[in-house]
Structure formats: structure tokens, C-alpha cells
Amino acid sequence: MRCLVCQETIEPQVTWENFWQVxxxxxxxxxxxxxxxxxxxxxxxxxxxxxxxxICPDCQKWTVTxxxxxxxxxxxFRYNDFARDVVARWKYRGDYVLMExxxxxxxxxxxxxxxxxxxxxSIPLSEDRMIERGFNQSxxxxxxxxxxxxxxxxxxxxxxxxxxxxxxxxxSANPFRLTTSINEPIILIDDIYTTGTTLxxxxxxxxxxxxxxxxxxxxxx
Length: 221
Ligand SMILES: [Zn+2]
Ligand SMILES: [Zn+2]
Fold this sequence. Notes:
With about 220 residues, the protein is α/β, with parallel strands linked by helices. About 30% of the residues lie in helices and about 15% in strands. A 5-stranded parallel sheet has the order 1-7-6-2-3. Strands 4-5 form a two-stranded antiparallel sheet.
């Protein structure tokens, strides 16, 4: 068996604990397993940013412009260099089988904060992006959680933006349109929380249409 991320051959780990059990199919080598930094204790309680100063400066700004729009975001891993590399393979090469390797971590982090009651709402891609990638990462994460995605949003226009445009993106127009309203708490699912703009754009439409509570779950922060 080869590591899904680096293609190295995986040495089976036999310990006294698993000696009598059928060995679980390992999908990652030890190095790739360790380099993914799990978020054990979130810094900012709203966005899971890695600092211990309570509500982070970004979230403080959000409370001014988007008060109560997004309840909180829960993330599984830090978006470190290793994670960036995995995401590059995952997202741009359509190689989302990679995420299967982290299925347990994803499920564990999700269920630590959320239940299986709330509908999971996917973030749509533009048509261009969908053709380019062949899959929607948000829906892939929902499937990884063993759930079905609820599509309440549509997206229009171009969404390709460079990092340089990130600052401008915070103030950019809402790219989403609500197709169906919902009057129960929901969880938005996406791959990466960067500025939190995408999630708040989606959340604000849902809240305006009567959704009582919008939370988010992302793989990387
Ligand atoms: Zn590896
Ligand atoms: Zn924050």
C-alpha cells in the first residue's frame, strides 16, 4: 500500500493493541499523518484562528459589519504548508480521494461540535470552476461525512481571484443567490476558511430569508 499523499510505501504498524485485530487499511505514511496539524484547541472561538487572544481582530471587525450572521466556524486542520500542498493536489487535480485519508479526523472534529440533525448546505462553484475541476469540494466533504448536501444557493459570475485581491474580496458584492429559503439552523460546508467572506456572503442571504442560525464547518483554517 502506498501513501495517498506522497506515494511512499507504507510499512504496516503492528502493535500489541492491533495484533489480534484485522489491520485497518492505512492510507497515509507516518510523515504525512504527522504533518497535518490537527486543531485541538481553537484560538478564536468564532473562526478557529490560531491565536489565544479570544475573539480575533477579524471577527471583531465582522461583528461590526455582519453582526450575528455567522454563529461560528469549526475547522479540522491548520492550513500549514503541508496542507496547502495536499489541497493543491486535491482541488486542482481533482484528486479528492486524498481526503479519504483524513476521513476519521474530519468526522471526529465535526461531531465534537455539531450533531447530525442540522442540514449541511453546500457552497456552489461557478460553472467555469465546476467544469475545470469536475467536482464540488463542498459536496465532497459532505459525502465524506456520510451525509447528503442541501443546495440552497446558486453562484454567478467569475470567481477566480488571486491572493492580492483577497483584501478587496472582503468588500466585494455577494456572488450568491438564494434559491430556496429554510427556517431551521443549518451548517455551511466548505474546504478552507480564509477571510470568512464567502461563508458570510452565503450566511447573510440565508439569515435574511429566515434561517435562525448559520454555522460553518471547514477542513482548513
Ligand atoms: Zn506520505
Ligand atoms: Zn476569529
